[in-house]
Amino acid sequence: QVQLVESGGGLVQAGGSLRLSCATSGSIFSVNAVGWYRRAPGKQRELVAAITNDGMTNYADSVKGRFTISRDNVKKALYLQMSSLNPEATAIYYCLLGGIYWGRGTQVTVSS
Question: Read out DSSP for 27-57?
């Protein structure tokens, strides 16, 4: 059974940093792409960043240069290092594994 659990969200001031983690279970992590998505209040869920099983990354234009996605195939974990946060980053952040499995999300709130 595949489960994803996000953590690391919280309240941070504009300009600050947070590191999100996504712990997964099951045996499919290392062979699948994984990504971070977010849903801001009143908006649709959008891709933040993704990483393939061999480490190729893709970022939304709005986060390029400020966010870094990484993965640890041994720990079956996904990470998102977020820096220079602005209030527009306020959202629930979700991880997605293999285009199928979603976590329940972690709230990130950036105060101005």
Answer: S-GGGS-EEEEEE-TTS--EEEEEE-TT--E
Strands 91-97 and 101-102: antiparallel
Q: Exposed (0-12), middle (13-18) or buried (19+): which is 2, by Cβ within 10 Å? A: middle
Span between the terminal Cα atoms of the chain, in Å: 40
The residues pairing with 70 across neighbouring beta strands, listed in sequence order, are 79
Q: Between vectors from CA 48 to CA 42 and to CA 54, what angle results, nearest 5°? A: 155
Report the pLDDT value the prediction gives residue 1, as an integer from 0 to 100: 87
Q: How confident is the model over 47-60, as pLDDT tens digits?
A: 999 999 999 999 99
Residue whose C-alpha is closest to residue 59's, from 90, 36, 91: 36
Cβ(33)–Cβ(42) under 8 Å?
no
Question: Which residues of the chain have a pLDDT value below 50?
Answer: none
